[in-house]
Amino acid sequence: YYNLSQYTYNELLKNEEIKNMGALGLLEEGTKANKYNFMDIAFKENSMVVMFEKYQVAPYVLGTFEVDVPLEYLQNN
Predict the structure, then answer these.
(1) Segment (H or E) for 43
(2) Residue among 56, 51, 55, 45 nearest 67 (CA)
(3) Beta carbons of 29 and 16 less than 8 angstroms apart
(4) What distance in Å separates the CA atoms of residue 65 and residue 52, rounded to the nearest whole number?
(5) In which band, very low, low, confident or very high, does the pLDDT at 23 lie, cut at 50, 70 and 90?
(6) Percentage of the chain modeled with pLDDT above 70
(7) Where would I find the H helices in the chain?
(8) Contact 1/77 with Cβ under 8 angstroms?
Protein backbone atom coordinates (compact mmCIF):
# COMPACT_ATOMS: atom_id res chain seq x y z
CA TYR A 1 0.00 0.00 0.00
CA TYR A 2 2.95 2.32 0.49
CA ASN A 3 3.51 3.15 -3.20
CA LEU A 4 -0.23 3.50 -3.81
CA SER A 5 -0.44 5.82 -0.84
CA GLN A 6 2.35 8.05 -2.13
CA TYR A 7 0.96 8.14 -5.67
CA THR A 8 -2.61 9.05 -4.67
CA TYR A 9 -1.43 11.62 -2.12
CA ASN A 10 0.77 13.37 -4.69
CA GLU A 11 -1.96 13.32 -7.34
CA LEU A 12 -4.59 14.73 -4.99
CA LEU A 13 -2.14 17.33 -3.69
CA LYS A 14 -2.29 18.89 -7.16
CA ASN A 15 -5.95 19.76 -6.52
CA GLU A 16 -6.13 23.45 -5.61
CA GLU A 17 -9.52 23.07 -3.88
CA ILE A 18 -8.07 20.66 -1.34
CA LYS A 19 -5.18 23.03 -0.62
CA ASN A 20 -7.45 26.10 -0.45
CA MET A 21 -9.75 24.38 2.07
CA GLY A 22 -6.78 23.65 4.33
CA ALA A 23 -7.55 19.95 4.11
CA LEU A 24 -4.01 18.61 4.02
CA GLY A 25 -4.57 16.72 7.28
CA LEU A 26 -7.59 14.93 5.81
CA LEU A 27 -5.65 14.23 2.65
CA GLU A 28 -2.74 12.74 4.57
CA GLU A 29 -4.97 10.58 6.75
CA GLY A 30 -7.22 9.48 3.86
CA THR A 31 -4.31 8.31 1.73
CA LYS A 32 -2.30 6.55 4.47
CA ALA A 33 -0.92 3.16 3.51
CA ASN A 34 -3.59 0.81 4.82
CA LYS A 35 -6.21 -1.43 3.28
CA TYR A 36 -9.14 0.64 4.55
CA ASN A 37 -8.15 3.68 2.49
CA PHE A 38 -7.95 1.65 -0.71
CA MET A 39 -11.05 -0.54 -0.58
CA ASP A 40 -12.97 1.16 -3.40
CA ILE A 41 -11.22 0.44 -6.66
CA ALA A 42 -12.16 -0.27 -10.26
CA PHE A 43 -10.16 -1.11 -13.33
CA LYS A 44 -10.02 0.54 -16.72
CA GLU A 45 -8.10 -0.67 -19.72
CA ASN A 46 -4.81 0.97 -18.65
CA SER A 47 -5.37 2.04 -15.06
CA MET A 48 -6.74 1.25 -11.66
CA VAL A 49 -9.16 3.84 -10.32
CA VAL A 50 -9.03 4.51 -6.58
CA MET A 51 -12.21 6.13 -5.29
CA PHE A 52 -12.28 8.13 -2.07
CA GLU A 53 -15.47 8.74 -0.09
CA LYS A 54 -16.67 12.14 1.10
CA TYR A 55 -14.65 13.29 4.14
CA GLN A 56 -11.89 10.76 3.38
CA VAL A 57 -9.43 13.16 1.71
CA ALA A 58 -11.26 16.50 1.79
CA PRO A 59 -14.26 18.23 3.39
CA TYR A 60 -17.74 17.00 2.44
CA VAL A 61 -18.44 20.09 0.37
CA LEU A 62 -15.79 19.08 -2.16
CA GLY A 63 -17.47 15.72 -2.79
CA THR A 64 -15.74 12.51 -3.73
CA PHE A 65 -12.41 12.09 -5.46
CA GLU A 66 -10.93 9.52 -7.81
CA VAL A 67 -7.34 8.91 -8.83
CA ASP A 68 -6.37 6.96 -11.93
CA VAL A 69 -3.23 4.96 -11.22
CA PRO A 70 -1.59 3.75 -14.44
CA LEU A 71 -1.16 -0.03 -14.56
CA GLU A 72 2.42 0.57 -15.67
CA TYR A 73 3.07 2.37 -12.37
CA LEU A 74 1.62 -0.56 -10.44
CA GLN A 75 3.75 -3.06 -12.34
CA ASN A 76 6.94 -1.07 -11.74
CA ASN A 77 6.33 -0.29 -8.08
Answers:
(1) strand 41-43
(2) 51
(3) no
(4) 5
(5) confident
(6) 100
(7) 2-13, 16-20, 24-30, 71-76
(8) no
Quote the Cα angle for 49-60-26, to 5°.
70
- In tens, the pLDDT along 26-61 reads 999 999 999 999 999 999 999 999 999 999 999 999
Chain centre to alpha carbon of residue 69? 9
Q: Are 11 and 47 in contact (CB under 8 A)?
A: no
Radius of gyration of the chain (CA): 12
The helix (H) or strand (E) run that includes residue 50 is strand 47-52
Quote the CA–CA distance of 75 and 65 in Å, as a whole number: 23
